[in-house]
Amino acid sequence: AVARTPSRRPGMAEAEGDAGLEQGLGPAAEGAELAAVIGATVPTGFEQTAAEEVQEKLGSASRISRDRGKIYFEVPARSLPQVHRLRSVDNLFVVVQEFKDYQFKENKEEALKDLEDLVKKLPWTDPLKVWELNNSLKKKKTKRKKHNLQSPASREKPSDGGEEGGADQSTTNDQDCAQNSVAVEPTGGQDTENPQGVMARNGVEKEEEEEDNEPPDVKGEVQADSESGTKAGDGQTGEEEAKVLKFRVTCNRAGDKHSFASNEAARDFGGAVQEHFQWKADMTNFDVEVLLNIHNNEVVVGIALTEESLHRRNITHFGPTTLRSTLAYGMLRLCDPQPTDIIVDPMCGTGAIPIEGAAEWPCCYHIAGDNSPQAVKRAANNICSLLRKNESKDSSTALGVPLDVIQWDICSLPLRTGSVDIVVTDMPFGKRIGSKKKNWDLYPACLMEMGRICTPGTGRAVLLTQDKKCFAKALSRVGHIWRRAQTVWVNVGGLHAAVYLLRRTWERAEERRSFW
Q1: Which GO terms describe its cellular component (predicted)?
Q2: CB 198 within 8 A of CB 220
Q3: Rounded distance between C-alpha atoms, residue 454 and residue 140, angstroms
Q4: In CA terms, which of 88, 235, 415, 489 is 20 to 30 Å from 327?
Q5: CB 208 within 8 A of CB 242
């Protein structure tokens, strides 16, 4: 399930652990700092990585949800800017209340009536304060962005042909397009086993192999918007009293024991939200996105804190298979980079992995390469965008990034034997790029060449692929130089893929491949 929308939040008291999550957020004690439970969607398979990052950077313990691809943690509101700077999370929301064992009625009307009645009982006050604070932070950021990025954006677009020029703009509108397509059919005709919302989103975003997608084991997730009327009321209490807030409800449902579809739940729950707050329903230009996440008997009500996924932070020039920055971070973290390590991505595409690496591990040296001149150009443009972004933040201390991009042949890299510490790359799946047939020759050749450039004994490789059968066969052919240490199963653009952590043996690799 995924969450998106504006957000904010004031301070927050120390975490109360799972009990606090269970009960939801009640009004803060007099004088106490407000505490909020934050939910974050993360790349499926990298939940533990995200939890470790939260502990490291925010000092908060996380709980990994049974619904794959989500974690929950508690922070004080003053930490909100740091929460948005987390590298491993896609979308953020503040939890209004969580029910770990919600008993749904078997009768559809009764089950939906219970969801309607729930709205009046939920502790909305503190989460809405969090949303307001988040919004105020976002407005400041947007003002800065407009001021700093007007000219670079206009310079950048023509530099990489028509395909790239449109990619940046289209990605900001993907989500609304997808959710509109569901909103157009408000009746509960489609069953959630037919994931219409997911299909709609993939239809738009599948240009990027790593776009927003639901976990593979979730059978029936559909995004549905509130179909309630548009009656206006007095508006929400707070700083914008005069303005009537516009809202939408997005329901993500997984499980086969529910008597209702997710668009029906969103419609009825949204009607009750509208009645309770006197907000106005608007499927596209909404201020508040209320999230209703249902996973079997687990129900979480939240308010979205992000309008678009945080994984878009580094890339301005997209290719046909652009990797999400959040997944790139998870892959890099898996190989535990140390200062002065030389990290190579020999099939870099648009440069998502090395750019993420240079941003988060600046004490390492990153080398990106690809055999496609278009890919190298896109990667170079993305690096230029990152440099401009760094300059606009603080021109007096702006530094370069420890990253070079080169065009080369993956099977014959211009690097000295044993000179590289880490190889991290997204290998061709054989779907949009290359073919399954070509992979049978390419994979063993790649693994041999990676083995040659990596330091024996300490070198490691983290490789992502969906062509698992071919990879297993290739690995068996080079078992003398690579040992598999760990496998993380991930969801990539709706495809069931794997991230393999390999460790370099002490065995000396041949200077060139004997089987070619």
Answers
A1: cytoplasm; tRNA methyltransferase complex
A2: no
A3: 45
A4: 415
A5: no
Domains of the chain: 34-140+245-310 (3.30.2130.30), 325-504 (3.40.50.150)
Q: What pLDDT is stored for residue 194 in this prediction?
A: 33
Whole-number mean pLDDT of the chain? 76
Could you read off the pLDDT of 285-333 as tens digits, one per residue?
Answer: 999 999 999 999 999 999 999 987 765 665 665 555 578 889 999 999 9
Both structure tokens of 163: 């395909």
Report pLDDT for 435: 53
Query: What DSSP string runs through 297-365?
Result: TEEEEEEE--SS-GGGSS-SS--TTPPPHHHHHHHHHHT---TT-EEEETT-TTTHHHHHHHHH-TTSE
Beta-carbon count within 10 A of 417 CB: 16
- Orientation of helix 352-360 relative to helix 373-393, angle to 10°: 30
Cβ contact 7:135 at 8 Å: yes
Could you give the CA distance from residue 504 to residue 494 in angstroms, rounded to a whole number? 31
**Of 323, 397, 329, 318, which Cα lies nearest the Cα of 359?**
329
- 146-150, 216-220, 267-271, 338-342: the lowest-pLDDT one: 216-220
Report helix angle 125-156 to 373-393, nearest 10: 120
Closest C-alpha to 131, from 186, 77, 53: 77
Distance CA 389, CA 202 (A): 29
* Radius of gyration over every alpha carbon of the chain, rounded to an integer in angstroms: 24
Q: How far are the Cα atoms of 21, 101, 284, 456, 508 from residue 42, in angstroms, in the given order? A: 19, 23, 24, 33, 38
- The structure tokens listed for 377 are 């150009």
